[in-house]
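Sequence in, structure out. Go.
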Amino acid sequence: QVGNRLLGERPSRTVSFEALKLAAGTVLLSPFIPLLFMGEEYGETAPFPYFISHSESALVEAVRRGRREEFAAFNWLGELSDPQDEATFQCAKIDHQLRHEGHHRVLLEFYRELIRLRKENPILSKLSKKSQEVSGDEENKVMMVHRWNGDDEVFMVFNFGDDRISAPLSFPAGNWSKLFDSAEERWQGGGSTVGQHICSKGKATIPLSSEAFALFVRTEEI
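Output:
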């Protein structure tokens, strides 16, 4: 949760770059309206602590006391910032220049490409829970999503684990072509380990890297 942590850290400060891409894919490729927090699309690093600007001293003190009591139970290390202090607000300001630099620029392009696919692909643009099936392998921390629109289909594999997938997964029978792979070098990943084409008989081994996802589209033939 952004904005209600002790230090207000964003995910860009707490998880890997691969995990940021995995989270983006999970959100943007779902059949829901995505809500993106300011700067999320390029991996903003500024914290977002809780801040207020109240004129009544009693209310200010009540908020301070409430925040201290709320966070005491978490036993987190660090000092809770004063929500009324202007410095708390100032440190939350985002740096728009970051989106032009290094991995921030790559992440922004990553978001743009996923949004383009979401808008232009007739399956991904259909926002209906009734046209999807979600399954998972809890032990290996893998989620599979099957979506369709009429005769068109896509299948997605998300690896939330720390290891490359090695076990066969349930995969709809047929011929499939890879449409997107978050581990590709163009996205500053370690390089794709998944083939461009999959021929499934109901199960398939997808050697997907850790903290990565791949999107496949059904084809008539390989």
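Check: The longest helix spans residues 102-120. The chain has two domains: 11-117, 128-219.
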